[in-house]
Design a protein that fits this description.
It contains seven helices and 18 strands. It has helices spanning about 10-30, 35-55, 135, 230-235, 255-270, 280-285, 295; strands at about 1-5, 55, 65-70, 75-85, 90-100, 105-110, 115-120, 140-145, 150-160, 165, 175, 180-185, 190-195, 200, 205-210, 215, 245, 250.
Length: about 300
């Protein structure tokens, strides 16, 4: 167990406040022993509250491509099918985890992958369990895509007491499952939007642990089966021996390319008749005796 870095300032302010308060009580009411003891007890409780709120447990996380880890400690308050209009713009399964002030408020990546989308939304501070807190409260939206191309959207949502949301990711970052991606101070909520068909492993009002509870199991799409001989045999092949017609009702000429190739091959094998060259024809013509004319007879 360690103390989270986001609590350094709050712890310093708390210690300073306790010191000043006790010094004033000691200075102005030196003989009010009951009052001093009450102040001592309250100061100690305040110190414990701050320390336990900013505690950060050290976890050994076993990553799994098909698992969706819980992003925060708390209780499951929503499991429903709904629309996601901001980025995914399709139907999703929404799981919401409410974090009370006594829970660990470290936020962890539910899956490993690449951050495809990030946006900060300023907004209201409705109570975290309010139905409209997911769309109207101050919040951040993160979309991570794993190696299988599955995208999971999750949101940090500020509550009535949580007035500051901290995040450590941006678009293009490569994140690891269970790694810290943010922190919300003093009570809040985290929403996770999963693809339809995802196997949900938790129930409403179940207490969950960030980075340890497996919220759901992703189911990848099955590959398209290859065509087998049986499928090919059942496939209907049109008979081209029947006349086809186009949209105007006229007969359409069907060219049988295989027959043409066979005819070309047969004709190529037949011997070609040799022709006498032109020069030989001329020689034959000149070798014939010339008939005498009338003038030569005389």
């Amino acid at each position: 167990m360690t103390f989270h870095k986001e609590g350094y300032t709050s712890l310093a302010i708390t210690v300073l406040f306790i010191f000043v308060l006790n010094a004033l009580i000691q200075f102005y009411f030196p003989d009010a022993h009951v009052v001093k003891w009450i102040v001592y007890v309250l100061s100690f409780l305040l110190f414990l509250i701050i320390v336990q709120f900013f505690r950060s447990p050290i976890l050994n996380i076993n990553t799994n491509e098909s698992h969706v880890l819980c992003p925060a400690d708390g209780k499951v308050v929503v499991i429903e099918e709904t629309d996601e209009p901001e980025f995914l713009k399709d139907r999703r399964i929404q799981l919401s985890v409410f974090m009370s002030p006594v829970n660990v408020h470290v936020n962890r990546n539910p899956i490993s992958g690449v951050v495809k989308y990030f946006k900060y939304h300023p907004g209201k501070y409705l109570v975290a369990w309010h139905p409209k807190s997911s769309t109207e409260n101050e919040r951040t939206t993160v979309v991570t895509e794993n190696s299988n191309g599955t995208q999971v959207l999750f949101r940090q949502i500020a509550g009535a007491l949580a007035r500051r949301i901290v995040w450590y990711v941006k678009e293009g970052d490569v994140v690891e499952q269970g790694q810290q991606f943010g922190f919300i101070k003093f009570g809040s909520r985290v929403d996770v939007f999963l693809p339809l068909g995802t196997k949900i492993n938790v129930e409403l009002n179940q207490v969950v642990k960030g980075g340890r509870t497996v919220l759901a199991e992703l189911t990848n799409a099955e590959p398209v089966a290859e065509l087998t001989s049986d499928v090919i045999a059942e496939t209907h092949i049109p008979d081209h021996t029947e006349p086809l017609s186009d949209v105007h009702g006229e007969e359409t000429l069907v060219i049988e390319h295989d027959v043409e190739k066979a005819n070309l091959a047969t004709s190529a094998k037949q011997p070609v008749a040799k022709t006498k060259p032109a020069t030989a024809a001329r020689k034959t013509a000149t070798s014939q005796p010339k008939k005498p004319t009338k003038k030569e007879d005389k």
